[in-house]
Amino acid sequence: MKQIEQMPSERVSIRDVFGVDSDLCVNAFKERGEYVPKIDPNYCFDPEVTLAILAGFTSNRRTLIQGTHGTGKSSHIEQVAARLNWPCLRINLDGHLSRLDFIGKDSIVIKDGLQVTEFKEGILPQSIQQPIALVLDEYDAGRPDVMFVIQQLLEQDGKYTSLEQNRVITPHPFFRLFATCNTLGLGNFSGMYSGTQVLNHSQLDRWNIIATLNYLDPSHEAKIILSKHPEFDTESGRHLVDQMIATAGLTRNGFMAGDLSTVMSPRTVITWAENIRIFGDVATAFRLSFVNRCDEEEKALVNEYFFRCFGDP
């Protein structure tokens, strides 16, 4: 990883930059580096989650964002970082990421024409020594050996003891740590998130801020879809989007009632809108975006939800 030399040297208004009703100002970098995410000019910020993420950036609070899939947890952190010009790096804690991948391992290198063994730092020790926001995606799917490495970073001083290098690494003053998860340490209790683990609650207790980003209210969800697909921003288009969101709401209610095993996330609704543009037909796009992923016995109920909102397909 390339060394980052910048430091946050500017103050920006939360109200002006994020549209959140607050008089607070936060630190930001003056220039954009290669690790700064690209700005999505149409991104819609959730006020409470935005304030939680900003607290993570400005006050060095370890911040965990929990919520259902497709609600934009990781992208929310990225878009805050993008507007602060704050370098940001995302790591997916899937079951294949080992402790050695995370912290580093011995590698054979050529020096002065000879093969020698040298320790190569992993992404974790490299990141904590730089002014960067490290985002741990799928935090509840991490392997136990990886999770206990993370626990060191959640202590008050956040120092990391590298046994491989026989040294203690003090985090950079502007290193920040975030994570996203679906289940908040409860495991795959709903059957929706295969591969997630029951998390150590003493570790969960070390996160300073836990924010929730679940299904949005219909007006906010419509605003996001229209920002992604401005071609629907007409009277008829807005009515269509409202119908789509109403259909998604019925699937979510059906899931909560135990009638469905699959649910439409906001990401699915956005995909549906994209497929309407491609195929030119609402019902066809609905089948290709959602219905075909449902259990055969549930498709009749899903089609009934569609009929309630759109009429006979």
Automatic annotation (TrEMBL):
Question: Gene3D superfamilies, alphabetically?
Answer: P-loop containing nucleotide triphosphate hydrolases
Q: Which UniProt keywords apply?
A: ATP-binding, Ligase, Nucleotide-binding
One annotated Gene Ontology cellular component of this protein = preribosome, large subunit precursor
This protein is called what? Aerobic cobaltochelatase CobS subunit
Q: What is its EC number?
A: 6.6.1.2
Query: What organism is the protein native to?
Result: Vibrio maritimus
Instruction: Give the top-rank taxon of the lineage listed in the UniProt record for this protein.
Output: Bacteria
Cross-referenced InterPro entries:
ATPase_dyneun-rel_AAA, CobS_N_dom, P-loop_NTPase
Q: Does the keyword Ligase apply?
A: yes
Cited SUPFAM superfamilies: P-loop containing nucleoside triphosphate hydrolases (SSF52540)
